[in-house]
Amino acid sequence: MPTTTTNMLLTTWPNLGDFFNHTDLSNNFNAIDAHDHSTGKGVSIPAAGLASNAVTTSKINDGAVTASKLAANSVTQAKLDSAFGALVTGYASRLSMIGAANTLATAAATVVPFDTVMFSTDTGMNVGGQPTRLYAPVTGAYRVSASITLAAFASASGFRTVNLRVNGSTSDGSGIMYGRNRLSGSTNADTFGITTLLYLTAGQYVDVTAFQNSGSTLAYSNTECSFSMEYASAP
Length: 235
Description:
A hairpin with a 6-residue loop joins strand 1 (3-4) and strand 2 (11-12). By secondary structure, the protein is mainly beta. The protein starts with a strand and ends with a strand. The chain has two domains: 3-74, no CATH class; 84-233, Jelly Rolls (Sandwich). It has helices at 22-33, 82-89, and strands at 3-4, 11-12, 92-96, 103-104, 110-111, 116-120, 134-135, 140-150, 159-166, 180-184, 190-200, 205-212, 218-219, 226-233. The protein is 9% helix and 31% strand. A five-stranded antiparallel sheet has the order 6-3-14-8-11. Strands 5, 7, 9, 10 and 12 form a five-stranded antiparallel sheet that branches. The protein has a two-stranded antiparallel sheet with strand order 1-2.
């Protein structure tokens, strides 16, 4: 006698004497023509049955891939967009000045001679041969902080400033300073710094300059000078 298949409910005639009619045969062909591997319309396609890159973005419904469908740790760093990946990675670096004794001449804006990478989460932030600079690995907003201390001096003449520069410039195209702090001179050890938010494109660098006009060369207090940059947000 005729039987029915499990997955597509097709009529079969396994025995020579089974009753056959063309309506059942036509229904079989219609079912085969309409099959889409959903329940009742064929066997589900296993993962091994899909060729690499066979399922394109346009074939996935919005919101179809929910968090519950992702195994823990299944989305790796390599699969993330570079901007979002930066947030996950936490690009950050900090420089200090712990090498030889350094000084700041009078009446001359000078790049602060940071010479040591205290830590860095990405080597792209520190380029060989440029120890005083921090580079942006990706485009986005960065928190930038710099602090320097000048040793005590007998004269309180003049003033002291610290500036942030982007690619060698202290201001953007509209003339807005990237960051500056200015103190009046004193006979005490002067500590002054800047913390600000800068928007940088990938490959731009930030460095720090200092200026003083006391009339004499002043010494840096090396262990109290630092410069750091941390990725804050994507574009």
